[in-house]
From TrEMBL:
Gene3D superfamilies recorded: 3.90.1200.10
Pfam families named in the record: APH
Domain called Aminoglycoside phosphotransferase: residue spans: 149-346
InterPro entries recorded: Aminoglycoside_PTrfase (IPR002575), Kinase-like_dom_sf (IPR011009)
Name this protein carries in UniProt: Aminoglycoside phosphotransferase domain-containing protein
Signal peptide location: none
Organism for this UniProt entry: Adineta steineri
Membrane-traversing stretches: none
């Protein structure tokens, strides 16, 4: 996969139990004995485009899964050993070392593709406590990949999250990224503690990772909560939280981009090339949809293509500054708590931004464009005024620049913003949602400087 997380919708909705709203009339437990019913939310032909697309708020399956059989797994591999092995899966150009990946996968426990097997594995990971699983049955701006997410409950408390990965490589990249993010040089953010991983037999999903729950709530959820505020004071409180969260996230990303050794030296050209190739593929997909689009919207796809190519040419003329980057710093993948601070989730793309020694080779503009552009877009959709959202954006950028002396490339920022907007348009076309298509085109035109 390229410098992007190929799979999207990494609905890593790692949220606290208090945030998961449950229908009071829902059945408390339902026994499943068959295979896990996990539908692929995105068609295979579109997987490579989905990662940068914000999706709708998650819907939660209200039925719980509890185990009916007695087999218990014995966890004979330690997560620390797996994280160490994941380090050996890194390469000089940010790809995945196939031999290192094979060695790591050979060490994993293998579980059956059933609900019972997943539950019993999770119970073994958590020390034998009986748990029930609740599947996130929808997508969401909270996280984004082809992964399937299960919330793990001990009684009424959410204690862990199970994440099923569509490919073995993505699981390995996640472990590699988590290993790097656990280094003591990082103090401005946290990651949900990984607990164990396993392979899955005869499944569309290659493996599963069990992790602790992220503290707080995602910025996407915090923005969405403004729509539920019933009083002026409640709305003001949420806006204040967003202001504080924007500043804390700026500090966290600045630390990620500058603290590692060799940050600020020259980035690998291939890292940017991968994103360029992705953008070109996205334009190609939009062009194929153009016959349908031109009947309902005004979009000059040839003009889009020409401006993209001109922007690419300008970006390639610049030397990029190196940084380790999150890779999908969407507001849904950045959690915030007033006490615990910032937590990163959904990090397999970070693997692409470091070499075999864990040193930076990526470009920081990718993270900044991803967060600040989508922050403004989500605020607009939530009914937050332009002035208010601009305040969050300006606070974020001001704090980031105060902590990162290296100037960002305006051309690369615009390129990544355009690439993300193209991805949103592709996703909207895939889903055949006219409103989403129109909103994506509005964003696209704004980035290109066109009049709507």
């Amino acid at each position: 996969m390229d410098a992007d997380n190929n799979s999207s919708l990494e609905a890593q909705c790692l949220m606290s139990g208090s945030q998961l709203k449950t229908n009071s009339n829902a059945v408390s437990s339902i026994h499943f004995a068959g295979e896990v019913c996990v539908e692929q939310t995105l068609p295979n032909e579109n997987e490579s485009f989905s990662e940068m697309v914000p999706l709708e708020v998650c819907d939660y399956q209200q039925a719980f899964m509890v185990s009916q059989f007695e087999h218990r797994y014995l966890i004979d591999q330690k997560i620390e050993d797996l994280l160490d092995m994941a380090i050996k899966c890194r390469t000089a150009d940010g790809s995945v070392d196939s031999s290192g990946m094979s060695l790591l996968l050979d060490k994993l426990e293998e579980i059956d593709n059933t609900d019972d097997a997943l539950i019993k594995f999770t119970e073994a990971v958590l020390g034998g406590v009986q748990v029930k699983l609740q599947k996130n049955s929808g997508g969401g701006a909270k996280g984004r990949s082809g992964a399937a997410i299960y919330f793990v409950y001990d009684g009424s408390a959410m204690v862990a999250v199970c994440k099923k990965f569509p490919t073995s490589e993505e699981l390995v990249r996640e472990l590699s990224s988590l290993s790097r993010l656990r280094k003591p040089e990082f103090t401005r953010f946290k990651i949900p503690a990984p607990l164990a991983a396993a392979k899955i037999k005869d499944s569309d999903y290659a493996g599963v990772l069990v992790s602790r729950v992220a503290q707080g709530q995602s910025i996407a959820d915090l923005i969405d909560s403004i729509t539920k505020a019933t009083t002026i004071s409640a709305r003001k409180n949420i806006l204040n939280q967003l202001q504080n969260a924007s500043v804390d996230i700026a500090r966290a990303l600045a630390e990620l981009h500058t603290e590692p050794d060799s940050s600020g030296v020259f980035a690998l050209r291939s890292y940017l090339i991968e994103s360029i190739n992705r953008a070109r593929r996205l334009v190609s997909v939009v062009a194929k949809e153009h016959a349908k689009l031109q009947d309902i919207v005004d979009l000059d796809i040839d003009k889009v293509h020409n401006q993209l190519e001109h922007l690419i040419e300008e970006c390639l003329c610049e030397q990029s500054k190196a940084a380790i980057v999150h890779g999908d710093a969407h507001p849904g993948n950045l959690f915030w708590d007033s006490t615990a601070g910032v937590t990163f989730i959904d990090t397999p793309s970070l693997h692409y931004s470091m070499d075999s020694m864990g040193k930076p080779i990526g470009t920081p503009e990718r993270d900044i464009a991803s967060f600040e552009g989508r922050l403004v877009e989500l605020c607009r959709k939530a009914g937050i005024s332009e002035n208010e959202s601009k305040s969050f954006r300006n606070s974020f950028l001001k704090e980031y620049h105060a902590r990162n002396d290296a100037s960002l490339s305006e051309k690369k920022l615009k390129f990544f913003q355009l690439r993300f907007a193209l991805g949103e348009l592709v996703q909207a076309c895939n889903n055949e949602r006219l409103k989403d298509i129109q909103e994506a085109i509005v964003s696209l035109k704004q980035i290109l400087g066109w009049k709507n």
